[in-house]
Amino acid sequence: MSANFEAKKVVVEDIKERIQNAKSVVFVKFSGLTVAEDTELRREFRKNNVEYKVLKNTLIRRAFNDMGITDFDDDLNGPTSVAFGADETGASKVIIDAVKKYQDKVSVKSAFVDGGRVDENGVKALAAMPSKEQLIAKMLGSLQAPISNFVGVLSAMPRSLVIALNAVAEKKAQ
């Protein structure tokens, strides 16, 4: 076998590993981005813990086909970049922001989340969802509210008693 074929097999294995390690994989169509715009987009991806790569469609298709997934064969045509997200919503949020910012230059093709294909509307829905950290913070705040209210009530009782005793003491002092 040729050295080129062996090199491509290594790249396909690398793509398969990235897909398996990512919580979401979003396919993006891009055209006409300037170097400055692309640099800014990549910076946003890094900030959100998303790996952004431009890969050959045939190699991405081969990686998915080797995993038994053929849902993306139609999406992998034309210029395609791939965002591998460490969580389900991070890559979608950055891409939807980029679609709004760069309008005709960037668009969503589809995504691979939780073992299945998600269309463009699904990616928009994922971007609208709060992140896992935000959901945990909201839940902890909800759990903490009754406890802090209870502590407030408990501390109000002795305070009221002290105020009442102080008023009685002042009245007797007069």
Separation of termini? 107 Å
Number of domains: 2
CATH architecture of the largest domain: 2-Layer Sandwich
The CATH fourth-level homologous superfamily of the largest domain: Ribosomal protein L10, N-terminal RNA-binding domain
Beta strand % = 15-25%
Output the CATH topology of the largest domain: Alpha-Beta Plaits
Q: What's the SSE pattern? A: HEHEHEHEEHH
Q: If you compute it from the alpha carbons, what radius of gyration comes out, rounded to the nearest whole angstrom?
A: 27 Å
What is the count of DSSP helices, taking H or I runs of 4+ residues? 6
Strand order of the largest sheet: 2-3-1-4-5
- The dominant shape is elongated
Question: What composes the largest sheet?
Answer: 5 strands, antiparallel
**Helix/strand class:** alpha+beta
